[in-house]
Amino acid sequence: MVNEDFLTMFHRLTSVGWAEENGVNRLALNEYDIQARKNLEGEMRAVKADIKHDDAGLIFGTLGSGKDNTAIGSHMDSVPNGGRFDGFYGVMSGMQLLKDLGSTLKNRKITAIDFTNEEGARFQPSLLGSGISTGVFTKEFAYSRKDSDGITFEDALEKSGYMGEEQNRVKNQDISRYIELHIEQGPVLELENYQIGIPKGIVTMVVDNISFTGESNQAGPTPMKVRKDALVAASRFTVAVRDIAKSSGKELTMTIGKINNFPNAYNVIPGKVTMNLDTRSPDKKTAEEYSKMAKEISERIASEEGVPVDFKNQWTTETTLFDEDMRKEIIKSCRALNLKYKELYSWPGHDAQYMNRVVPTAMIFIPSHNGRSHTKEEYSSDRDLINGYSVLKRTVENL
């Protein structure tokens, strides 16, 4: 009955902002995100949870009493044309724990959390809500972030009705520990036939901005030998960083996922190309080393093509290592439930990496079918959803 209740709630609430033809468009604090938040708070009120908001718009639903407080959460905002499972699974699991354990709590509390703007799809950078709530970002910085329409994060918060109090931030509450249940967003668990993943931590991410500046000119009469084509330089760079990552023999990924070509007309030689390079590794030195190598490659290609390059670091995160004692408790739960588990690193970022700065933190993964995520094809089976929730529930009970 509990399993059916959880699945019914999950599938009902994740339908907000979903369309079969293009997936979920529940960007932070847009109409769909606000509706999902209202639905979540409706579930919280039904179990008589104490609901609070902080000045980053986080939603906290708490049951119980005493100083020992286990927080469970994730986010409900999505990327454009995203899937139904990323983030939402963790929030619904926290909500279900309030239902399942709320009446049994004595001298302890459980808090379900929905973090704001985890994805960074509307307001950059990502993890904006958890960053404010844990003190990583200043309010002035975060509130000044603008979306593509020029709306600030502060204005969106005010309009949404989720502007809360600074005193309700994570770092100002009596939260004892934090667990985030999430889909893997990669293929490893499914390919290797594991039912549960237990992240050791989250890898280092180095994000660089690169701009190649050439000369725009008419495509027809400009001889090939005198062209200064920014897109050619950018294309060579894209292939080069792919090749050094593939041949590195290290735990490493390098991705160019965003590129802008100017003026982007079929009959004009590209005069400028801007792009982002995302370099990740569990070892921070490796990530930084390969980012430096990419810079050297860009300068060599720029010289050969006669197009100046500007290579700047946008941001770098530290490798996050999760609490060892909590990971051991998750392992015990997997063994007790006879579920096959694998310890691994999380390659995407999560709110857990900022929560880890203020309280002991751990994560639990379930398989993602075909490793798909941030797309409407994102999928995890009902069986996997229940397996993950069962591990979470048992772990929280033991803690």
Please tell me what the overall shape is. Answer: globular
Low-confidence stretches: none
What structural category characterises the helix and strand content? alpha/beta
| Main sheet makeup | 6 strands, mixed
Domain Peptidase M20 dimerisation: 200-302
Pfam family, one: Peptidase_M20
Keywords: Hydrolase
GO molecular function, one term: hydrolase activity, acting on carbon-nitrogen (but not peptide) bonds, in linear amidines
Structural write-up:
By secondary structure, the protein is an alpha/beta fold. The chain has 2 domains: 1-202 and 319-398, Zn peptidases (Aminopeptidase); 204-317, Alpha-Beta Plaits (2-Layer Sandwich). Helix content is 35%, strand content 24%. The protein contains 12 helices and 15 strands. A 6-stranded mixed beta sheet has the order 3-4-6-5-7-15. It has a 4-stranded antiparallel beta sheet with strand order 10-11-9-12, covered by helices on one side. A 3-stranded mixed beta sheet has the order 13-8-14. The longest helix is centred in the last third of the chain and has 22 residues, at 284-305. The relative contact order is 0.16.
Q: Helix and strand layout, with pairings?
A:
Blueprint: H1 2-13, E1 18-19, E2 23-24, H2 31-46, E3 50-53, E4 59-64, E5 68-75, H3 88-101, E6 108-115, H4 128-133, H5 139-143, H6 153-160, E7 177-183, H7 188-191, E8 196-202, E9 204-213, H8 230-246, E10 253-262, E11 272-281, H9 284-305, E12 309-316, E13 320-321, H10 324-336, E14 341-346, H11 352-355, E15 361-366, H12 382-398
Parallel strand pairs: 5-6, 5-7, 7-15, 8-14
Antiparallel strand pairs: 1-2, 3-4, 4-6, 8-13, 9-11, 9-12, 10-11
